[in-house]
Amino acid sequence: MSIEITGFNWVPDFARGYVRDLRPRWACEEIGLPYAMRLISPVPPRPAAYFEEQPWGQVPVLHDGEVRLFESGAILLHLAERDTRLLSRDPQQRATSIAWLFAALNSVEPGLFELGNVTLFSKDAEWAKLRLPSLIEDMGKRLDRLADALGEREWLGDGFSVADIAMVTVLRNADGSPLITSRPTLAAYVERGMARPAFQRAMAAQLADFQPAPVAA
Question: What radius of gyration, in Å, describes the C-alpha atoms of the chain?
Fold first, then answer.
């Protein structure tokens, strides 16, 4: 088996099902590509050699034979080159999918990541309370534009692609939030993605890999 994906063997409950190795797992499941998992602990310190593979010690990392790469977006694009079910060979359809893949990770995810910090990790900080209203407003405008672009289509391009793996997993970070529930187009889009059998298999596999919490030294 040439495909190996690195993931964590434990994360807190709130992060389960959201760790980014879900993205390459989903891509592999969509095209029936066998893969193996290499599970590492999220608890520092990471093995020194791992920083040669991923400079920040994060997951996922992909090994595809002699090819090794990090960053979930780069991994998705690499896997998509294997199969037209993830990335069309039509020049315009291909370009559209690649553009939306980058848009998911560069134009949508950073704001939702910041929202998670403001509402969860730093929610009691005064700066977070001050930042929240403008952040909600900014993200609302951005998601309105996304909903307009999606329109009545099922997927971001002419058919399901790697761009939808990226965007659905990004939007799931706000799943259940008014940012999504108040925008029926996006809520339905996320539900369609999560209903795909390949997503369900990838999710079940990630959840099954998590072990009991590590014992503090």
Answer: 18
Q: Tokens in use for 31?
A: 């095209």
Kindly indicate the confidence band of residue 1, based on its pLDDT and cuts at 50, 70 and 90: low
Reading phi first (left if > 0) and then psi (alpha if -120 to 50, else beta), residue 151 is in left
Q: Six-digit token pair at 203?
A: 């999710």
The alpha helices in the chain, defined as continuous H runs, are 22-31, 72-80, 91-103, 109-116, 126-150, 162-171, 178-181, 184-195, 197-209
User: How do residues 46-59 score in pLDDT, each as one tens digit?
Assistant: 889 999 999 999 99
Between 1 and 15, residue with greater pLDDT? 15
Nearest to 116 by CA among 207, 13, 15: 15
C-alpha dist (Å) from residue 117 to 7, 124, 125, 140, 194: 22, 11, 11, 17, 24
This prediction has a pTM of 0.96
* Nearest partner of 85 among 34, 27, 154, judged by Cα: 27
**2 neighbors 34 (Cβ within 8 angstroms):** no
Whole-angstrom distance, CA of residue 46 vs CA of residue 54? 11
- Counted residue by residue, the chain has a size of 217
